[in-house]
Every structure is written in C-alpha cells, then in structure tokens.
Amino acid sequence: MTGPVVVGVDGSPASVTAAWWAAREAVDRHLPLLLLHSWTTQPLDVPVAQETLGKQRYGGLVLQRTEAELLHRYADLSLVTELVSESASKALVDAGETATLLVLGSRSHGSLAGFLLGSVSLHVLGLAQCPAVTVRAGDPAVEDGWGNPAAIGRKEVVVGVQEPSPAADPLLEFAFTTAELRGARVRAVRALSSSLVTHPHASHAGESYEADERTRLAADLAPWQEKFPGVEVVHHVARGSASQVLLAASARSRLTVVGRRRHPSPLTWKLGPVAHAALHHLPCPVAVIPHD
Q: What is the pLDDT of residues 154-198, one digit of tens each?
C-alpha cells in the first residue's frame, strides 16, 4: 500500500511516543506521515478553556509542536497535519480506509483505562481496515532509539500463526516486511493443546505431536522465507493456551503481531483473547492486523 502512516496525537506523553514510532515507520517505508488531532476529543486534563476556540487552539499547538519535533528528528520525513472536528475514533477509523498503518498511544501497562483517549484505541483497533499499532508511553526503545541498551535484546518480530490458512497471510506479510526493515528476525509462534490422550506412551506421543506441528509450521512459513530470504526465522511451538504461549515468546520482541477478524458492520466488532492479552500485558508495540 502507498497510503500514509497515520498517528493520533493529543499532547499526552503516550501520543508523543506513538508519533516518534510512527515517524520512524514512515521514513523506513518511504511513506508520508499524517498527524491527526480531534479537538472535540481531548484529554480531560487539557489546561485550556473548554470553549470551542480554546480547544481548537490547543489542538493546533499540539500539532505544531509534534510536527517540529519530528522534522527535527527526521529531516527527510514527509509530514502533514490535520485538525478535525469528528470524534477521534471516527476520524481514525475513517483515515484507516486509505492508510497503510494506524498508530495509537497507550498510556499505561496492563490497563484498559490507559489507552489513548480512554476507549478510543479499543474502538479503532476493532474497526480499522488497515493494520493498527499501539505503542506504550515511555518505551525506552522507542524514545531513545533502537541502538540504546534497552533495545539491544529486542531483536525479534513475534507473530502468532495458529492455523495454516489464508487468514494468516496479512499477519505474516506485516511481520516479515517489518523484520526486513528493522534487520530483525521473525519468531513465528504456534500454541499446542496441552491435553493428549493418556496412555503408557503419552510422553512419546506428545513429542511426536510437537515435532509434527513444527514441521507443519516450517512448511507454512516456507513461501515467506523464500519471499524474504534475508530474514531469519525461528519456529516456536509450545504447549499452552495461545495467549500464554504468545506472551512467553514475546520476551525479546521489538514488535508483536496478532490478528483480528473483520466484521461486516461497524456496530459489531471485538478483539479476541489473544489480542487482548497482548495489548494488556506486553511492553513492546503491538500490531493488530485485520483479516477475513
């Protein structure tokens, strides 16, 4: 896709960190960056009068400050700003129809209330037509750059590949593309049921089961390794729930990629348990990829 990278900014530390991450993605992907601010959906602690003009002025200042900082960091960044009157969730979902990527800030670790603008992020993640990424406020690997000590051990893009099907293709495309851009390896994760029929050779049966699934996973990934020959791949197969296995596998993740089914109606959406677990518990950026 050639649409912009879109990031929602509201002046909070979370949105600033998200904007830094989004700018780096835009530069690396040779895409323009769109900074979007909804003056009708601002944090409750905005230190301005609540009149319309005050909110609009605040929004304009937020965009100007963020634009100046990003252009200082990335001189070759192509950047535009947009101050909108629509709600933040509607503006971001609408922008996602033509964007390559949406980026949102997350204020705190492990709290629904910590997402940028309260429930806005969850709404956007559930409805966006393009990949959407949440970035934690204060993530040192984002704020200080990938060469700093906090980022040295985070060399992987982790992606959940539970079933071999066309639904996994958008996740793998995003994971391999990002890994290639970042010089990272891909860790493809598949969780196995921890229950096996009990019999005298249960241990041997379990080992055979895991070996078979590892072989299947390698076969599923073979076309992607051929398409991205420079990307190292780790086949990660483990027992447990999909959420538990993915969280454990993401200890060294630079980015974790999860999926979310598309829904025919904007009134019907939800994030699955794996996506919820990643968004609530992982400190690294999390990409939610819609698929059929």
A: 889 999 998 767 778 999 999 999 999 989 999 999 999 776 544
Tokens read off for 225: 């390794």
Q: What is the pLDDT of residues 41-83, one digit of tens each?
A: 766 555 555 577 778 888 899 999 999 999 999 989 999 999 9
Angle made by CA atoms 55, 57, 62, in degrees to the nearest 5: 95
Q: Model's pTM, two decimal places?
A: 0.87
Phi-psi sector, 255: left (phi>0), alpha (psi -120 to 50), beta: beta
State in Å, rounded, how far the first CA of the chain is from the last one: 18
165 CB-contact burial (10 Å; exposed 0-12 / middle 13-18 / buried 19+) = exposed
- From 255, 45, 244, select the one nearest 135 (Cα to Cα): 255
Q: Where are the domains of the chain?
A: 5-143, 153-291
Q: Select the CATH number that applies to the domain covering 153-291 from these four: 3.40.50.620, 3.30.200.20, 3.30.70.100, 3.10.20.310.
A: 3.40.50.620
Q: Tell me the C-alpha distance between 142 and 188, whole Å.
A: 23
CATH code that applies to domain 5-143: 3.40.50.620
Nearest residue to 22 via CA among 40, 39, 11, 36: 36
